[in-house]
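Is this the right way to post structure tokens for a design question? Let me know if I should format differently. Anyway, here goes:
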């Protein structure tokens, strides 16, 4: 369980070059971002980060407990910074498969659960398949505004919103 009052928290944050990262068969509860690959360059700088290579995330459960959601019956009265489950900003050859991702809502971001948004460098060769995404405002933000985003495959994912009373119907 990863969270910190007043600051963004991450379950796993890999940035500024590395290779052969495998995240397998785990449960990660993080208020900010559960799995975050890459980072933004410091504000006002044009520094390029070197991308992570050969990243695998499989058989994991990425979740945000409902007790962290303001307005929910189980809310624990602690206002964490809540963002998303899975975000890539700088990476090459990423595989995310057979994961379950649950409970994500609009708080410090729009409530979109999975983001491929290159910033510090390019994002290439991403496969996101056979995952279950449930109970979120929206599912994917795939955006190459700042850097290059190439060869992204999103296939065979089950995207469901079971709790329509507490989550928006947008996706």
């Amino acid at each position: 369980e990863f969270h910190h009052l007043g600051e963004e928290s991450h379950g796993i944050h890999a940035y500024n070059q590395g290779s052969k990262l495998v995240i397998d068969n785990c449960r990660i509860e993080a208020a900010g971002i559960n799995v975050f690959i890459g980072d933004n360059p410091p504000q006002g700088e044009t520094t390029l980060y070197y991308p992570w290579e050969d990243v695998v995330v499989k058989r994991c459960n990425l979740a945000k407990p409902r007790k962290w959601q303001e307005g929910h019956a189980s809310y624990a009265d602690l206002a964490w910074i809540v963002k998303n489950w899975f975000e890539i900003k700088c990476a090459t050859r990423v595989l995310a498969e057979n994961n379950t991702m649950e409970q994500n809502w609009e708080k410090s971001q729009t409530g979109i659960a999975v983001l491929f948004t290159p910033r510090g460098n390019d994002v290439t060769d991403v496969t996101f398949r056979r995952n279950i995404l449930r109970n979120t405002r929206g599912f994917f933000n795939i955006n190459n505004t700042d850097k290059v985003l190439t060869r992204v495959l999103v296939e065979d994912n089950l995207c469901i919103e079971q709790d329509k009373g507490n989550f928006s119907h947008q996706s």
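Format looks fine. Someone answered above. Worth noting: The longest strand covers residues 18-24. The two ends are 27 Å apart (CA to CA).
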